[in-house]
Amino acid sequence: MGVSGSGKSTVGAALAQRLRVPFADADDLHPSANVAKMSRGEALDDEDRFPWLELVGEWLAVHEDGAVMSCSALKRKYRDQIRHHAPTVRFLLLEGTREVIGARQASRPGHFMPASLLTSQLAALEPLAPDEDGIVLDVDQSVDQIVQEYVDHVRVR
Hints:
Low-confidence stretches: none
Number of strands: 4
Helix content: 40-55%
């Protein structure tokens, strides 16, 4: 989880490969109206997100034996909605500075989520609460390092 440009898809795919489980990108589950709205530089509201988050939670529930899904899950209530379907989900919050994430966004032209929405995403991001199963990792390191830190964290648990 994390804001656009934090590396969710890249890290998620690498983590799924490492764990030998299915991977899905929640961006692929957005209805065309959501994609069009974001492409126009408009932030999604909770009403836009609700049906999309239902699909995310349902996909995770179907893959309860193990899977990785990249999803922004910016707010606690969004994560709660996902947990409603998949109560054992564990979150990996990818955090980074505005400068690091902005540079990443600038290096991926053609993505439907414009860099102009970074500010609204950072404002909406609610950190993991102590009662949420998950870990926060800095994106300013290699994908392999992030995956290893996550795997080590899970092993310790």
